[in-house]
Amino acid sequence: MIRVLLADDEAMIRSALAALLRLEEDIDVVAECADGTEAIARALELEPDVCVLDLEMPGADGVDVAAQLSRRIAARFVVVTRHARPGVLRRALSSGVAGFLPKSRGADEVAQVVRKVAAGGRYVDPEIAADALTDVRCPLTPRELDVLRVGRRGETTGQIARTLSLAPGTVRNHVSVVLGKLGVETRQQAVLIAEEKGWI
């Protein structure tokens, strides 16, 4: 029996997928979680075989949940998303995610991916994989991405500097370089591009 934890902040989708997966003879849905924080807590408590995680959830997104849990439990991770951006796929795979598919897939296909991942395999939706191969690589350095990530909600230069243990002038320099590389005028525009591309 494959023990599965489901996490999705959309209650209807979560409960429908749980009900359909429970019809499978070899799958047992042991938890349904409404956000990333709950998913982490329940997964640490139950240690499921596979966690099926929505990419975009409050608390922590599916990739962050997988990254945190992969260091602590032996579960395997499948991320489902409505907006499958190539950059997110790269981030997911580097965080220990073994399955990646769009929410447009049926419950029977999700069940097949759960089985494959539980058996040690990997699955990436072919269309997402093709898009990822043709997508432009991120031109920003890891530190530049850190500055955007920490300041994505409008934090001040001083707040970003404190969080990253940098001087405010260094943060301003990083922001200036980012704006030049991305060809935009504001940090918020840079954040939007980085989020859309899945870089942060």
Automatic annotation (TrEMBL):
CDD domains for this protein: LuxR_C_like
Protein name as annotated: DNA-binding response regulator
Keyword Phosphoprotein among UniProt keywords: yes
Single GO molecular function: DNA binding
Organism encoding this protein: Microbacterium nanhaiense
Source domain of life: Bacteria
Domain HTH luxR-type: 132-198
Keywords: DNA-binding, Phosphoprotein
Ranges of residues in domain Response regulatory: 3-118
Positions of modified residues (4-aspartylphosphate): 54
InterPro entries the record matches: CheY-like_superfamily (IPR011006), Sig_transdc_resp-reg_C-effctor (IPR016032), Sig_transdc_resp-reg_receiver (IPR001789), Tscrpt_reg_LuxR_C (IPR000792), WalR-like (IPR039420)
